[in-house]
Specification:
Layout lengths: L1 H5 L4 H4 L22 H23 L9 H8 L6 H19 L10 H11 L2 H14 L4 E8 L2 E8 L10 E7 L6 H4 L3 H11 L3 H8 L2
Antiparallel strand pairs: 1-2, 1-3
Helix pairs in contact: 3-5, 4-5, 6-7, 7-9
This protein binds fe (iii) ion (FE).
The site of fe (iii) ion has 7 residues, from helix 3.
Length: 214
């Protein structure tokens, strides 16, 4: 990946920007057999990288050129004339958060402090998984399902396309990408199988707990 980045044509633009393309937190094959190295390779190396490259080009010579990513997202959300910048910035953030929401050591039982909050909100961990998977499957077309902490309670929400829960109102704990590029090579049209496999084997409870305690 680093060699590819050095030779990338947008390197000159990138030098002027505060933005960085974040490293994957694990090797591309670390999520196998639930998510293949091929899927991760395309998803991270092509899809997320394209959002990053597009964003660098779009913000060059604008007010956003030396802003951190979160500030770009905040500044462009809900502004139709800034949709392209928002979409690429938000997708860059969402994907970075998605990779962290997964772990080769994920799945299983949540840590006690998180489990207690999940049981208070959903009744049981299984009931949470059912609601989260339901939101992920019900999202029409491309988008995301999220676990958030809002008004002192855990909630499941879904968003379309590049949108994410606004960080001013909620703490974001976990996400799953339900754009077809996230699962089609491995699961074809079986989105529910992808979501349930991720929840059982990859979901990063430790990351959720860190976000809850922020
Ligand atoms: Fe994606």
């Amino acid at each position: 990946m680093s060699t590819e980045m050095v030779n990338d044509s947008s390197d000159i633009l990138r030098e002027k920007s505060a933005l960085v393309f974040p490293a994957l937190p694990y090797p591309e094959d670390a999520l196998e057999p639930i998510i293949s190295a091929k899927t991760v390779g395309f998803h991270y190396g092509k899809h997320q990288k394209a959002y990053f490259d597009n964003l660098i080009k779009l913000v060059t010579d604008t007010d956003y050129s030396d802003m951190p990513l979160e500030q770009i997202i905040e500044g462009t959300a809900g502004r139709p004339e800034r949709t392209a910048i928002f979409n690429n910035a938000s997708q860059l953030w969402n994907h970075t958060f998605y990779w962290q929401s997964l772990s080769p050591k994920g799945g299983g039982e949540p840590p006690a402090a998180l489990k207690q909050k999940i049981e208070a909100a959903f009744g049981s961990v299984d009931a949470f998984k059912k609601e989260f998977a339901g939101a992920a499957v019900a999202q029409f077309g491309s988008g995301w399902a999220w676990l958030i902490f809002e008004a002192d309670k855990l909630k499941v929400v879904k968003t379309a396309n590049a949108n994410a829960p606004l960080p001013k109102n909620a703490r974001v704990l976990l996400t799953i990408d339900v754009w077809e590029h996230a699962y089609y090579l491995d699961y074809q049209n079986r989105r529910a199988d992808y979501v349930n496999a991720v929840l059982d084997k990859l979901i990063n409870w430790e990351f959720a707990l860190q976000n809850l305690n922020k």
